[in-house]
Structure formats: structure tokens, C-alpha cells
Write a structure and sequence with these properties.
DNA damage, 4-stranded parallel β-sheet, DNA repair, two-stranded antiparallel ribbon, hydrolase, alpha/beta, Uracil-DNA Glycosylase, subunit E, Uracil-DNA_glycosylase-like, 16 helices, 7% strand
């Protein structure tokens, strides 16, 4: 069609020209038309009409539309994204286990069997570090010597199974596991039924009730927090084990470094945003390096009876956390803090050669780990105590608060000496220890 039209146009305008000139113009017109047609075919497609080469279905339809509200935070979502926005990391567990030495496989048997794969894949370098292997040697010596360890071995990493890495939206930081019978089961502040809620947890219930008047605590005065963990609340203690009846007995053995790595992993991997609830000075020090606007850190005093009256009850953390989560994840991202539903705790099977003391071993007819029950005497019933035995480890909490205060005071004094040109020996200022002891005594008296 192109050639006849061109010839017709040229013929109309060149009838009076000589034959050779006429032919020359026809050839030029034909070449020009072919060149213009070629340019049109080579013109790159626009993004609105055609997807780029190697593009995907998402690039064809364009990015999902997000309607911003005040502050630029997304409030509406066109996709059906879930709160666990990132899939678990790919991790070939069998291949990794095969790469371990015989000693490493023996020392890390508990981690291999009970640490959730999403966490094991992210922490595999940490658990094979010299410091962590030394921690495991220490724990094995404790068990071999007959020491009773809490929580039961198969519950040490229950926080990882209830709350896989790709589902974490809130982190609550604790300090030391409860060191009494039938209490600790791997989630900070949580106790296994029928143990009643400890004082700190009761204060947490009071604070939630102020934020949400329709809040329902667990039935029968329970302190089981697995419903939170199952929704994406990581309930993490600083130390993950303790000797029975001896608060802080496994402190400074290596757990602190490991759990700090857990926190750092959450900060790095959960890029959509996580709320950190840091109650008390030790927990706040763990969050010092969390900066920028990606995550939210909410600070308050510890909910212990020693300090809760100093602002914890009115901190509003539970409502603030949900408001922030909704701005990041949408309505499906908020946490239902109600605890009026009991969830059974079932630990994964732990095979030999992980060792446990006799009081920590399971019997075949039981679903979960068990510690010994009080023995019955003739004509005497075992009665469940109404009050928490051990008074919520108030001595341990006070000791950790005192250590944190001493560190802060020593650091402040050192900074003052440097600025004033005074001696900088890095030592503790005179009177600091006595003053902090006095403060701890005053708190206990409250």
C-alpha cells in the first residue's frame, strides 16, 4: 500500500519533469517512506502500554496503590498482605548439620532439635561461635553435676517455635527465667498452668485494662501468654536458663550475647517494622542501638511491684503499639491482648544425646515437659497456692536494676572527668555502690 500511494503523489507533482528526473524522485520518495516505517517499528514501548523485557506481572499492572495519611504512613492497602510480610529464610538444615564437627553436633543437639528453623538459619553463625559453644559446655557441666535447670530443656527455645522470625511484630524483653517449680517455660513473664500469674504479670494485666477496658485475663488467674506469642509477640528473656532457686545463676555466661544477636536479627530482618517494649533499665540498654524510624521503641519502668507505681500503669504501651502496627501492617497487624483462651503447650520431641535430670524428663503419658509435683503425705492434699511462690524474683530484678544504675553512673562520671580535664581512671565514683544499694533498699521497702 505504501509504494502505490507514494508513486501516485509523486506522479501528480512531476508530470512536467524529464523522465530521468522523474525516476530519481520516485526512488528518493520510496527510500524515505521505508526509513520512516523502520523508525516507527524500532521505537521503544512506553511503560503504560507494554511491560519491560524480563518484567513480571506486577510490573505490567504497576505498583500497588497506597493511600497515605498524615505523616506519610500507609493506612489502606490494595493487596491482601499478611502481618508476616516476609517468607522464612531458605535454610538447608540437613546440609548445615552435616557440616558441623562431631563435638558441635553434640553440644548443639538442643538447638538442632528445638530451635525453630527460621531462627536457626539466621543464628547458625552465632551458635557455632566459640563463646556460644563455651556456654553450652557450661550448661552440660551443670546438668552432669545434677543441677536442676529451668526452664525444662525442651522449653528453652519455645519462644522461637511460638513466634518464628518472619512473624515477629512485637518484642517484649524480660530478664531472668523464673526459678521455681512449674513456672518458666521459655516465654518471658509467662508461667505454665496451674501456676497463678506472678506480681509483675498482674501489673501488666492492669496496664492493659487501662488501655482496653474490655481486656480479659486468662481464666483461673493464669499467667500463660502463648496467645500473644502465637500472634507475633516475641517474649524473650535476657538469660534463657537458670538454676532452680538461684536467681541470675546463669548470668554473664554467654546468654546475653546470644539474645542480643536475636534482637539485632529482628532489627535487621523485619524491615517492615517492629515494636520493642523495653521495661526497666536493663531492657532499655538492650535497645540503645535501635535508631531511625523503621522500628518503634517504647520505654517504661519495670512492671515489678518495686517500680510499677512509678509510671508503668499509665504508660499506654499496648494501645500505642497497636496504633503503630496498624499504620504499618493494616488492621490485620494489631495484637489481640485478650488472654481468655487457653492454648496447650506441646514441646517437640528431644532425642538423645541431650541430657536432662530425672526431674526434667517427660513421662510417656504427658504432652509437655514436667517438673516434680509436691509429694502427698498420708491424709494430706496438695493445695495450689494462691500467691506466686518466689515473689516474682524481686531480688533478681533489684540486682539487675542496681547493676544498670552503676554502669550508667560510672559512664556519666567518666564523661564528666574527660570534659573537665580531671583524672579518667575508669573507676566507679566514690559512694556510688553505697548510694545504689540504698536506692534498692528504698525500692524494696515500697
Amino acid at each position: 500500500m505504501l509504494w502505490p500511494r507514494t508513486v501516485s503523489r509523486v506522479n501528480l507533482s512531476t508530470r512536467s519533469l524529464p523522465p530521468r528526473r522523474h525516476t530519481h524522485l520516485l526512488v528518493l520518495a520510496y527510500r524515505h517512506s521505508r526509513a520512516m516505517s523502520s523508525l516507527k517499528r524500532k521505537e521503544p514501548p512506553t511503560s503504560a502500554s507494554q511491560p519491560k523485557r524480563n518484567g513480571d506481572l506486577t510490573s505490567f499492572f504497576g505498583p500497588p496503590k497506597v493511600t497515605p495519611s498524615g505523616g506519610g504512613k500507609p493506612t489502606s492497602f490494595t493487596s491482601s498482605s499478611t502481618a508476616s510480610d516476609a517468607p522464612p529464610l531458605k535454610f538447608d538444615k540437613d546440609k548445615w548439620v552435616a557440616s558441623l564437627t562431631e563435638e558441635q553436633r553434640k553440644l548443639l543437639k538442643l538447638e538442632i532439635d528445638t530451635l525453630d528453623p527460621s531462627w536457626l538459619g539466621a543464628l547458625k553463625d552465632e551458635v557455632t561461635s566459640p563463646s556460644f559453644l563455651e556456654l553450652k559446655r557450661f550448661l552440660q557441666k551443670e546438668i552432669d553435676s545434677g543441677q536442676k535447670i529451668y526452664p525444662p530443656l525442651e522449653d528453652v527455645y519455645s519462644w522461637s517455635r511460638h513466634c518464628p522470625l518472619h512473624k515477629v511484630r512485637v518484642v517484649i524483653l524480660g530478664q531472668d527465667p523464673y526459678h521455681g517449680h512449674n513456672q518458666a517455660h521459655g516465654l518471658c513473664f509467662s508461667v505454665r498452668p496451674p501456676t497463678p500469674a506472678p506480681p509483675s504479670l498482674k501489673n501488666i494485666y492492669i496496664a492493659i485494662k487501662k488501655d482496653y477496658p474490655d481486656f480479659s485475663p486468662p481464666p483461673k488467674n493464669s499467667g500463660l501468654l502463648t496467645p500473644w506469642a502465637d500472634q507475633g509477640v516475641l517474649l524473650l528473656n535476657t538469660c534463657l536458663t537458670v538454676r532452680a532457686g538461684q536467681a541470675n545463676s546463669h548470668a554473664n555466661r554467654g546468654w546475653e550475647k546470644f539474645t542480643q544477636k536475636v534482637i539485632d536479627t529482628v532489627v535487621k530482618v523485619r524491615t517492615r517494622g517492629v515494636v520493642f517494649l523495653a521495661w526497666g533499665m536493663p531492657a532499655q540498654k538492650r535497645c540503645e542501638k535501635i535508631t531511625g524510624g523503621r522500628h518503634l521503641v517504647l520505654k517504661s519502668v519495670h512492671p515489678s511491684p518495686l517500680s510499677a507505681h512509678k509510671g508503668f500503669f499509665d504508660c499506654g504501651h499496648f494501645k500505642k503499639a497497636n496504633e503503630w502496627l496498624e499504620s504499618r501492617y493494616g488492621p490485620e497487624g494489631v495484637i489481640d491482648w485478650n488472654l481468655n483462651v487457653q492454648h496447650p503447650i506441646k514441646a517437640p520431641p528431644v532425642q538423645e544425646p541431650v541430657k536432662a535430670t530425672a526431674s526434667q524428663e517427660k513421662t510417656p503419658e504427658e504432652d509437655g515437659p514436667v517438673t516434680e509435683l509436691p509429694e502427698k503425705t498420708d491424709g494430706e492434699k496438695v493445695v495450689q497456692k494462691d500467691e506466686f511462690d518466689g515473689e516474682d524474683d524481686e531480688d533478681a530484678i533489684a540486682a539487675m536494676e542496681e547493676i544498670a544504675r552503676q554502669e550508667d553512673q560510672a559512664e556519666a562520671t567518666k564523661k564528666t572527668n574527660v570534659e573537665s580535664g580531671g583524672p579518667d581512671d575508669g573507676g566507679e565514683p566514690k559512694g556510688t555502690r553505697e548510694e545504689t544499694k540504698s536506692e534498692a533498699t528504698d525500692e524494696k521497702a515500697v
